[in-house]
Amino acid sequence: AMALCLKQVFNKDKTFRPRKKFEPGTQRFELYKKAQASLKSGLDLKAVVQLPPGESINDWIAVHVVDFFNRINLIYGTMSEYCTEKSCPIMSGGLKYEYRWQDDSKYKKPTKLSAPQYMCMLMDWIEMLINNEDIFPTRIGVPFPRQFQQVCTKILTRLFRVFVHVYIHHFDSIINMGAEAHVNTCYKHFYYFIREFSLVDHRELEPLVRMPQGWGG
Length: 217
Fold this sequence. Notes:
By secondary structure, the chain is mainly α. The chain has helices at 2-11, 27-40, 45-48, 57-79, 115-130, 148-176, 180-196; strands at residues 92-93, 97-98. The protein is globular.
């Protein structure tokens, strides 16, 4: 019943575009399948995120960055009708945290944006990075660039802010849509992953140290 309910929730959103997929037959596709299988097996999430023996750390991180991007994009897509210029004129996580947007093209300086604008810039920016073969190579034997983990840290730090905004400003909507268990599981999986590999500065995690009621531990 839960899966059916989520299907309806996710089908409602017409703006979500499927993102990068892993090519069947490649090492990364096999890793992705392995990660998905252990996720479904009901294993403890702390164990699920650990690097499988003999696998490359960068491959493991690449697979998760793409997968988290797809999942979080989908979660935000379901919230987007509640997250408007009017409801969220500033991209924030409560009164204490405000996030400004900066990139290498249009916004050279950190700029105040509404939450929907910020999300739009963020999703396009990540999509551009993960589809860039120089940063996320998909061909066998092509090495990752030296700055790969730094790029992933930046992506994951910004994706964490999506959780911050959704939990703090749209938690009621999550509950009303019956998507709470799904969002919580995705958040925990993401959280354990970034902690396992120290990919996000602990100061960035502060807004969600005290989670809203209904958070399952």
